[in-house]
Amino acid sequence: MTEMMTKEDVTAMILSAKKTAGLTWESIADQIGMSPVWTHSAAMGMNAMPRDKAEAMVATMGLPQEAASVLEESPTKIWEQAVPTDPCIYRLYEIVGVYGPTIKALIQEKFGDGIMSAIDFDMQIHRVEHPKGDRVKIEMSGKYLGYNSW
Question: Is residue 127 annotated as part of the catalytic site, yes or no?
Fold first, then answer.
């Protein structure tokens, strides 16, 4: 009996194919018709790909056909709750730690009691030239979800 391919298996294949081909996430995203942020997240197993995008990823990366159905599977979003030590990821935690209460207060002041969706959501990452050193600009846009009173 053959073992079933997992999301982790497909992620490893995508990363290997990307490195071997010298591709960028932006070029892969262009080829499958999605944003680089969503493409990477789905490739890491954090989003389910619609069938046409999964097929495009398989073709673009030269993956076995079985990988398409794995890419279509709904993810189980489990991650370590400890603060990571990778400097880039740690800084994002730091931003939320320092500015999270401010972001929450300003969202509630502008919209009312609720949250920003991470499901109905998009994000772009830009490089912005700056005289003191180039800047990273992260734009996030999520649907406002008000809490229900019942």
Answer: no
Residue carrying structure tokens 């290997």:
16
Query: Is 16 noted as a catalytic residue in this protein?
Result: no
Which class does domain 87-146 fall in? alpha beta
For residue 133 the two structure tokens come to 């050193």
Domain with CATH 3.30.1160.10 in the chain: 87-146
pTM of the model: 0.77
Residues of the chain with CATH 1.10.260.40: 7-72
- Reduced to 3 states, what is the DSSP secondary structure of residue 129? coil
Q: Which of 8, 26, 94, 139 is catalytic?
A: 94
Distance (Å, whole) CA 28 – CA 39: 8
7-72 under CATH 1.10.260.40, yes or no = yes
pLDDT in tens, the chain (150 residues): 568 999 999 999 999 999 999 999 999 999 999 999 999 999 999 899 999 999 999 999 999 999 999 999 998 877 667 888 889 988 998 998 888 988 998 999 999 999 999 999 999 999 999 999 999 999 999 999 999 877
